[in-house]
Write a structure and sequence with these properties.
By secondary structure, the chain is of the alpha/beta class. The chain contains nine helices and six strands. The protein has a six-stranded mixed beta sheet, sandwiched between helices.
């Protein structure tokens, strides 16, 4: 079965995406996969984390970020008083590249519609990039060393989406300085969410005032 972009864009549930990924042969990675690694977490999550691609443990368990880097991510999420079930975690690629090599451009391109559909369904307030590879799919000219810890907006899926760039948790495993940087950047997430909520309330208040002013009867 050939999975088209139209098929993917018509999905309106995360379970639909999972079924399509299981059947997908849009690139050759399906030939070497153990399990599909579509995503995990709340379908209405306010925060969505996006990494690069599944690794060995992810391929074996069928869940993103369950290896050492995943343990680090879980600890960071829990430091905010949340659990993995409270957010949504996914990767650009839904199948592991052999030997954990970098994704090929054509592989990332074939998986791109799946990720866009996931974002549309979840409609998160904040999308958090975990590493430069994930960020480059959205902002190809940005350097994570310059923008990490910063939030920015971009028109995406028909709305002004807020993004936050973070280093990949793997960089903090062997470098204590990077771990401190990651923890500091991660701690900004609740503040950014609060800022988004405040802006949304102001926008709604403004819309209500304009509606009252233009109401004819």
């Amino acid at each position: 079965m050939k999975i088209t972009e139209e098929d993917i864009s018509c999905a309106d549930r995360l379970s639909d995406i999972e079924e399509l990924v299981a059947k997908c042969k849009r690139c050759t990675l399906y030939k070497t996969k153990t399990k599909d690694v579509t995503g995990v977490g709340a379908s209405d999550a306010e925060v969505m984390f996006i990494g690069e691609a599944p690794g060995k443990e992810e391929d074996l368990q069928g869940e993103p970020f369950v290896g050492r880097a995943g343990q680090m991510l879980t600890e960071l999420i829990e430091s905010l008083g949340w659990g993995r079930k409270d957010v949504y975690i996914a990767n650009v690629l839904k199948h592991r590249p052999p030997n954990n090599r970098d994704p090929l451009p054509e592989e990332a391109q074939m998986c791109w519609p799946f990720l866009k559909a996931q974002i549309k369904i979840i409609d998160p307030k904040l999308i958090v990039f975990l590493g430069r590879h994930a960020m480059s799919r959205f902002f190809p000219t940005m350097q994570i060393s310059k923008v990490h810890g910063n939030a920015f907006r971009k028109e995406f899926n028909g709305k002004k989406q807020v993004f936050l760039a973070l280093y990949h948790p793997a960089v903090a495993i062997y470098n204590s300085n990077m771990k401190e940087t990651l923890e500091t950047d991660f701690s900004r997430i609740p503040k950014i969410l609060k800022k988004i909520e405040e802006e949304n309330l102001k926008s709604k208040s403004k819309e209500n005032k304009e509606t009252k002013q233009t109401k004819l009867f």
